[in-house]
What does this fold into?
Amino acid sequence: MAQTGRLTNARIGVLMGGQSTERDVSLRTGQAVHQSLIRQGYDAVSIDVTDHLHQDLKDQKVAIAFLSLHGPGGEDGTIQGFLDTIGMPYTGSGVQASAVGMHKVITKTLLAAHDIPVPAGTVVQRGEQPSLAKALKAARLKLPVVVKPASQGSTIGVTIIRQANKWKDALALAHRYDPDAMIEAYIPGHEVTVSILGGLAGALKILPAVEIVAPDGFYDFSAKYQRGKTRYLCPAPLSAKILRQIGVLGRRAYQVLGCEGAARVDFRITPKGRPYVLEINTVPGMTETSLLPMAAAQAGIDYDSLVEWILQSALDRASRYAQAAKRESA
It folds into this structure.
């Protein structure tokens, strides 16, 4: 892209790394985004987020933040709230959508209230030690079930329980990462994800769905990030009816949470074609194996154009900040 075609001349800080369990993935996402911005002629610097972030942003003279942080601290509204406080525009969703989207229990509660189908389930708090039978009865579940931390990404801390003797270990693993452990029905069938790009004036672009065919049917951390372990089918080989349905549900989930920029909605679809929303990712990965760039490519949007599309969400936020400041000074 010629420099005259850049969306902004402001210095962009690509925020990556951090201290979450997804640090390594975040660094890969951030490095790829930074390289794309430089390739397109933008004034961009990469910043590994530490406790000195505020000073780093000042020293580097950053005017816009491109968020490439994953997990707690990066996707949960924390960094978004900090940037709002200092008046720095950033990419993606704001504080509320980020906080809700990161906490799977709150996400499910909100989506269910809007008649968006989610798996049945319950929550076990850290310190509680209910028997498996009691937990299953409370949510009217039966084996197999999925046990997961309420606020983690990349399938960290997740266990599929098919035998009762795995219960205590699964609960302990989930509680290692979060005070709340979600217990929910295991939905057999297809694992599919739908990526959504927010545009100007609230316009949304629904990207082609991706079906994930993981080894042993479990899309865990290694299946996500080790090349060759998982097959990705894009566009997903599903019926037109199901593809339309998950596109509509993905759009509704994005709107219910109040997302901005790019987001990804993950589904399980039963053999009979009934979809359930598992979660929504408000800072989707942008690594070489990530699903958002894959879906965008299928839609004819190359990686650099995708980065620019996401960057636009920060520019939209900058415009809102400027308008708010103008109103206050009037």
Confidence is low (pLDDT under 50) at residues 220-225. The longest helix spans residues 303-329.
